[in-house]
Amino acid sequence: MASQDVDYDDKAGWSPRNEGIYIRILHEHVKKGDLQISTFHKKVWTIISDELFAAVCKMFVIQNLTSKFNRLRKKHRVFSDLIVHTCFGWDPVANIVTSSDEIWAEYIKRVPCVKCYRKKGLEHYQMLGEIFNTTTATTHLHFSSSQLPPNSDDERVLEDTFLNTGVHVNTNEDNDPMDNYF
């Protein structure tokens, strides 16, 4: 049985080397402006497939590429949520998430898929942020149908800031850890 974070496709053909090359190819296409809303057109996926084959000598069908793309998006979102949490620290140079054993145990109980980040952070986090920054959905700022929409200037500014920054944590800016709670 496959784990939650590494499914059969990852074990079958997505070695760390292949994944890194794939992420770099995606990143280049995002920089070219090929990402449309939240994915690439079929023509671009075909080009990505060809470029990946040329680099790793292994053919991936477009369905495998899009599935991996979506799994990477999920990993990026989960890791971003983890490192902005008040009780965690993150060293982007060493790529290590730090906290006490008790905090880790409690957080892993609530979010089991973060267990893989206990010893090492998310590889290629910065590039994934550039790929997914504006295309990753979160549960922040959601409203139920029984709630009135935001109507104050502060709420509009908060919403605008969130919508324009995405979930990625910019490691070049100082973040106030008190902004994030359990």
Automatic annotation (TrEMBL):
Top-level taxon of origin: Eukaryota
Species this protein is from: Dipteronia sinensis
Pfam families according to UniProt: Myb_DNA-bind_3
PANTHER family named among the record's database cross-references: L10-INTERACTING MYB DOMAIN-CONTAINING PROTEIN-LIKE, PTHR47584
Name used for this protein in its record: Myb/SANT-like domain-containing protein
Domain Myb/SANT-like: 14-107
